[in-house]
Amino acid sequence: MAVNILDIGSKSNYPVGELSNFAVHEFILDGVICSSMESFLQALKFEKPHVQAEICKLNGIKAKQRGNDRNNQWKLKQGLWWQGNIYLRKSVEYQRLLDRAFLALVNSSEKYKQALLDTGDLILTNNIGKNNESETTLTQGEFCSRLMKLRKFLRNGVNLNLEKKL
To answer: Is residue 63 packed enough to be buried (19+ CB in 10 Å), middle (13-18) or exposed (0-12)?
Structure first.
C-alpha cells in the first residue's frame, strides 16, 4: 500500500525538510528581513519592533530559544505583535498576517517553492506541531493547509501577491 502522506520536519529529507519552519529561507515582510518562518513566528511574541527585527535575523533554533521566554506572556494575553500592532491569536487579522508571511516566503525563495511543488499531490502533515491555537503561534492545520493551498496555486499559475487570502 502506497503512503500518500509527507510529514514535515526539520530533520526530514528533501522536500519536506525544506518546508520546515526552521529551514533557512530568507524573506521580507513589511520591510523586516526574516531568515526563516520560525524566526518570524517567534518574533511575534515580542512587542517592540526593534526586538522583532533582531529575532527575525536569528536562525530558527536560536529564534525558538529566544521566544520560549515569552510563551507565558503571549498565551496569557492571547495576543501576538507585529510592527507595533497587537493581533488577537484567534482573529481574522492574525490569519491574514500569517497568509502574508507565507506568501512573502514563497515569493522570495525559489528553493522553498520548488520543494513545495516537489511534494506532488501528497498530503502534508506536521505531527510535531500542536493543534490548539491558544498554545502555539501556528497550528498543524494552519501550517499544512496553507502549504497545500500555496502548492495548488503555484501549479495553477495563480498570482501570489501579499494580499492573497489563503
So the answer is: buried
